[in-house]
Amino acid sequence: MQQMKKKSFKITDTYILLIILVVLVAFFSLVNRQFIAYNNISTMLKNMVLTGVLALGLTPLMIARGLDISFGNSISLTSVIMAVLYTVFGLNLWLTLLIGILVAALIGFINGLLIEKFNLIPIILTLGTMAILQALALVTANTFTQTYSILMLTDQLYYFSTRTFLKIPLPLYVLIVLIFIFWFVLTKTKFGRTIYLIGANPKVAYLCGVKVKKVKILLYIFMGFITGIGGVLSVALTGVGASYQGAKLVLPTLSAVLLGGISLMGGSGSALGTLIGVLIVTVIFNGLSVLNVPSYYIQLFQGIALILIVAAYEIRNKKIQII
Question: Taking the CA of residue 257 as centre, how many other CA atoms within 13 Å lie in the half-sphere pointing to its CB?
C-alpha cells in the first residue's frame, strides 16, 4: 500500500511539471507570437541539448547521493584541449574527440576516487576541482594561442550542428538516445535499482552486499564521460574551444535537475522528470530572451529560481516526514 502511494505521488509530481510546462508555453506564445515560430523552436531545441545531456549525467549520480558541480569547467578544459589538438597540432578529428571524452571521464574518476576514498563532501571537493579546471583551461588556451578561445572549424561538426532530419536538429537526436538509455537503465535494470537503493539508504545497500563506494565512483566516471560528450557537442555547436565555454551551463543544469524531482538527499528522481525540468528551464530562458529581457536580469532570475526550487523541495520533504 505504501509503495502504491509513493508511486502515485511521483506520477502526480510529473503531471504538475507537465502542466507548468504547458502553461509556460501558452503564456510566452500569447505574449509574443515569435516564440512559436519554427526558427525559434528549432533554436530552442538545439540550445536545450547541452543542458539536457549534462542534466541526464547528473541524474543517477544525484539519485545515489553524489554531486558534481565541476562539469561546466570540465567542458571548458576539454573543449580547449580538443581545439588545441585539432587546430594547433593537426590531430585526426575523431581521435581528438575521443581524447576529449576520455579526459573528461578521467576528471570524473578523480572526483569520485577522492570523494569516496577520503569521505569528502562532494560539493566542496568539486568546487575545488572547478577552480583547478578553470585555471587549466585558461593556461592551456593562453599557452598555445595567447587567447582564451580557439577556433575548431570542421566540415563534419558544422554539418552535424546545422543540419536537420525530419525537421529536428541533428544534435537533438543525441539527447533523445541518451534519454532512452537513462530511462531504461534506471527503471529496467538491476544496476538502476541499486542506484536508488544507495540513494535511499547507503548502509542498507552495503548490508545487502552492494559495493557502494565502487558504484558511486563508477557514477562519477560516467558523469565525466557524459560531460565529455557535452564538450564535443559544445565545440560542434559553437565552432570554438573556449576557457569560459561551460561555466554558464552549471546554473541551468542544476535548476533543471532539481526542478525535475531529483533530491539533494538522494533516493528520488527519474530521467523523465529531468527531461521535463530541462524543457521548463529552456522554455523560461528562451521566452525571456524573445521578450528582450536583458541577459543580466536572466542571470539574476537563474540564481533566484535555483534558491526557490531548493527551498520548495526542502519544505515539501519536511512536510512529508511529518506526515
Answer: 27
Report in angstroms the alpha-carbon separations of 37 from 183, 281, 284.
Answer: 30, 19, 16
- Residue from 271, 275, 46, 55 nearest 181 by CA: 271
What is the rounded CA–CA span in Å between residue 142 and residue 53?
28
Q: Are 43 and 161 in contact (CB under 8 A)?
A: no
Q: Which helix (H) or strand (E) holds 151?
A: strand 149-151
Residues 259, 268: Cα–Cα separation, whole Å: 12
Taken in order of first residue, the domains within the chain and their CATH numbers are 49-288+295-312 (1.10.3470)
* 58-92 tens-digit pLDDT: 999 999 999 999 999 999 999 999 999 999 999 99
CA distances (Å), origin 114, targets 50, 57, 76, 105, 306? 27, 19, 22, 14, 27
* Per-residue pLDDT reduced to its tens digit, 40-50: 998 899 889 99
Cell 523560461: give the residue. Answer: 284
pLDDT digits (tens, 9 = 90+) for 118-144: 999 999 999 999 999 999 999 999 998
d(CA 152, CA 144): 14
- 241: helix, strand or coil: strand
In 3D space, the residue among 233, 100, 250, 215 whose CA is nearest the CA of residue 175 turns out to be 233
Helix (H) or strand (E) holding 149: strand 149-151
